[in-house]
Amino acid sequence: MAQGDLKILSGTSNPALAEAICDHLGCTLLPSKVSTFSDGEIRVEIGANVRGSDIFVIQSTCKPVNFLFMELCLILDALKRASAHRVTAVVPYYGYARQDRKVAPRAPISAKLVADFLTVAGMNRLLTIDLHAGQIQGFFNLPVDNLYAAPIMAEYFKGIHSDNLMIVSPDAGGVERARSFAKRLEGGLAIIDKRRDAPNQAKAMHVIGDVTDKVCVVLDDMIDTAGTIVQAGQVLLENGAREVMACATHPVLSGPAIERLEASPFSQIVTTNTIPLGEEARCCSKIKVLSIAGLLAKAIHNIHTESSVSVLFT
């Protein structure tokens, strides 16, 4: 049974994605106002009645991460105080996800703290895409739906299917993701083995698997500074690959990423619109952006109507 009227509200991180989701659902965005006071504090105001409604807030916590995260928390608090029946935070890109465990004796587990903030702010459910670490779902004591962009990206690569297709994991941690993707496309699997022989020495990269004369797709969950993924592409060519492409859900693209990708051996870099591209990235002819608006719209519809979300995983 549906829980109140379905309403979509967007933060300022990715309004184009929110509009696309509304187009799929046949609804309009709730009016809202986000501004800053002269001292930098964020001001949020919801411009319509939400009492008893089932609200979905679209907000990626990408750059500027802290500002957009705080904005999301204030929106959640405003909706809670306005008596919304249920509030689902739709966070296509979950910031701080790479800080999911203690890596030093006196370090925080930032991904857990973010989960606590969102819960206290008033979120009743989280909908996200390709969490960097799946165990982050356990940081919440409420429902979490972690969708995968793989079906959308696999559909794209089916259009350029090659009998010599090889899916490549850029490190050992991404093997499960790459294996699942290779199975979808009926392609081969290779792994880049990185190791540092001594402190402060460059990483030696070895390819596990025969990539000779293969069309290789290096698959990762995100591209940040692009250093590792570009090195992987170069090593694959050195090992006889015919062509190399890159594929990642989240285009973080910070620091020298665009410069590196422009100069990289990749013929294409396929990503999604979980994070909006900056002006420099939009000018990069190698980058192809696929929309996840349809996937999120289906998930939002199923959550609202209390239907199965797991059907979207197949």
From TrEMBL:
Binding site for D-ribose 5-phosphate: R196, D220, D224, T225, A226, G227, T228
EC number from the UniProt entry: 2.7.6.1
SMART domains: Pribosyltran_N
Translocase found in the keyword field: no
Annotated keywords: ATP-binding, Cytoplasm, Kinase, Magnesium, Metal-binding, Nucleotide biosynthesis, Nucleotide-binding, Transferase
Residue ranges constituting the Ribose-phosphate pyrophosphokinase N-terminal domain according to the UniProt record: 6-122
GO terms for cellular component: cytoplasm; ribose phosphate diphosphokinase complex
Molecular function terms, GO-annotated: ATP binding; kinase activity; magnesium ion binding; ribose phosphate diphosphokinase activity
SUPFAM superfamilies, per database record: PRTase-like
Pfam families registered for this protein in UniProt: Pribosyl_synth, Pribosyltran_N
Residues binding ATP, per UniProt: D39, G40, E41, R98, Q99
Major location category of this protein: cytoplasm
Catalytic residues (positions): K194
Protein's pathway: Metabolic intermediate biosynthesis; 5-phospho-alpha-D-ribose 1-diphosphate biosynthesis; 5-phospho-alpha-D-ribose 1-diphosphate from D-ribose 5-phosphate (route I): step 1/1
PROSITE patterns: PRPP_SYNTHASE
Necessary cofactors: Mg(2+)
Subcellular location(s) per record: Cytoplasm
Cofactor note: Binds 2 Mg(2+) ions per subunit.
PANTHER family in the record: RIBOSE-PHOSPHATE DIPHOSPHOKINASE FAMILY MEMBER, RIBOSE-PHOSPHATE PYROPHOSPHOKINASE 1, CHLOROPLASTIC
Described function: Involved in the biosynthesis of the central metabolite phospho-alpha-D-ribosyl-1-pyrophosphate (PRPP) via the transfer of pyrophosphoryl group from ATP to 1-hydroxyl of ribose-5-phosphate (Rib-5-P).
Protein name, entry field: Ribose-phosphate pyrophosphokinase
Organism annotation: Desulfolutivibrio sulfodismutans
